[in-house]
Model the fold of this input.
Amino acid sequence: MDSETAASSKNSYTCPKCNSNKGYIIGNPIVDKKTGKEVTSHLVYYLILLVWGLLGGYAYTIGAISIFVVIVPMLGIVKLLFDYYNADKTQGTKYKCANCQNRWVLATKITKTKSTPQEEATKIFRFLGNEILLGTLIALLSVFTALSSYQGALADGEQNKYELLGMQSLNDGNAEYLRANQDITQDYNYFDNWYLNVDERPDIAEYYQSSFSQPLLDAIGRDPDTVWDDQYYTEMYTEADQYFADSDANFELGIQWDERGDKLQLVLMIMALGLAFAAWASLMREDNHLRVFFGLFSIIALIIGVVTYLGVQVVAG
Done:
């Protein structure tokens, strides 16, 4: 016999598995008369998985796995709420056997009834307007709305930071580029004067040679006939090129943070719309058909928002 299946017994403390009289009460759950099973038996586990998935998705430590550990618990919670709403609920008693550790549940009365398809369809639509479901939707949509808003603000701050760093590096690169041009111009003048005096006035030529930059000395050492090769200019513009590279990298990061912020704003809008529908539905009468449609719209908004949120790119840097 299944450990969670309700059983009829002469003695409620008699274990249906080992038939020992060592059973003791461990709780009084709500059970379904039709099945004899707890209607919220796994709710705690689904909630734990959902919190873990949200934290993991926020910290980006589990990557694509967060899609599984967020959506699956949410679907499980929705199913539990649906089962709870449609169950023929009654107070039950849960026992545990001290001998074999088996657990079982006994309801006050177990009946076997079968609903018509029309009744089942009506229950499904009525479930969409259930106050427990709407309350859960409001809570989840509020959490995602706040989370996307907070992360969007952080993304905007990071965008501004890297754009300022990119602008600073660009300005430093331009200044370094001008300084390199001045050094190259001085090398031209020093080299011309050295070349004109190297044979007739070596002392003056030596003075100009002592003013050569290190890249020019290295270029002469490589090939005295060429001197002004590509490596010379590369060495002269090294610091400027580094600043320009840093500027491009910072601007690229700023663009990535901007795109992330835009997507988070989209998530915020979707979640806010879903939250508005759920809140509006909760204020309507239970017999109002718009309550059901608004509940459905909020569920759709939550699903689309979660999928969009999990697809937001992670910016490294």
Observations:
- Residues 1-11, 58-66 have pLDDT under 50 and may be disordered.
